[in-house]
Amino acid sequence: MSCDTSSAAIIETSQAGQQFDIDGPESKSSLNGTLPTYEEWLAEIDREVDDMKVDKVELLEKIMEGYERFNGSENTEILWRVARNLFRLGCLASAKGQKEEEKKYFMEAEKYIKKALDKDAEKPIHHAFAAYISGKLSYFVGQKERIQRGNEVYHHLEEAIRLGANDAGVYLAFGRLCIEVAKLTWIERKLASIIFSKPPEVTYQDALDKFTEADELEPDTKVIHFWMAKAHIAMKNYDKAIRALDTAAKCNPKREEDLTIEEELASLQEKYASYR
Predict the structure, then answer these.
(1) Which one of 38, 157, 167, 180 is most buried, counting C-beta atoms within 10 A?
(2) Residue 60 · residue 86 · CB < 8 Å
(3) What is the CB-side half-sphere exposure of residue 111 using CA atoms within 13 A?
(4) Residue 154: closest CA among 221, 92, 202
(5) Which residues, other chains included, contact 144 with Cβ-Cβ below 8 Å and sequence gap of 6+?
(6) For residues 185 and 245, which has the higher predicted lDDT (pLDDT)?
């Protein structure tokens, strides 16, 4: 069995021009030198994706080996995991300022999550990653398409919650969407009213409420406290903002997305230092 056209492409890494073909041979390095079972492979992938020390490019190789071995093109459990790892790689590229790499990874991730959704639209994790990925890609498009993607994000987040998602990332993404909608200009709102059947009515306080829910589900997360600070800044609560920024600075990175806000976090700490 061979991968589909998109997965057969060679993905370049940021490591000194290194390249790899994600149609590589099966790995025999896992679990005492023997090929893992499907369940063992899934558990290994899930463990390694959350380990900040694991090279996510090498992990993608391992995932694509499993994609080949376990008929991944027909398996939604594999499809969304491919999308998840590509999303993490996109966040790493963003943290390094590699815009082309970032866009490439997110676009590739979107292909896989759409395939997962086409096969099963009743799994909250599929809608969650569709929202995360579309939200990231919205920064690479013009105003009209960005609003359209905002509509997609809103739909997928609502579906994820309706289907029982209990993940901090869903509420973090919802809060970020609230901030984007709340800051729309009058002209942008008129455009949004054409694109949305009914534009969501949200405020910066709504955003903060979503970030608070995310914090309750996953305390001490750098990116969550950073966005709580952004909501406070939007509401001119600068004393609360600097406290949230300082808390974010003390949090150890848990995932690649935490790395994407380091530079702006330091800048905002300096800007609002007088409110301590």
Answers:
(1) 157
(2) yes
(3) 13
(4) 202
(5) 191, 195
(6) 245
Report the first-to-last Cα separation within the chain, whole angstroms.
60
The predicted pLDDT at position 207 comes to 97
CA distances to 47, 71, 124, 163 from 67, in Å = 17, 6, 21, 26
Reported as a pLDDT band with limits 50, 70 and 90, residue 184 is confident
Short-list 23, 21, 3, 2, CA closest to 12: 21
What does the pLDDT look like over 133-158, one tens digit per residue?
999 999 999 888 888 898 899 999 99
Amino acid letter, residue 46? D
- HEC secondary structure over 117-145: HHHCCCCHHHHHHHHHHHHHHHHHCCHHH
Backbone angles phi, psi at 21, to 5 degrees: -100, 120
- Distances from the Cα of 273 to the Cαs of 92, 115, 144, in angstroms? 28, 46, 36
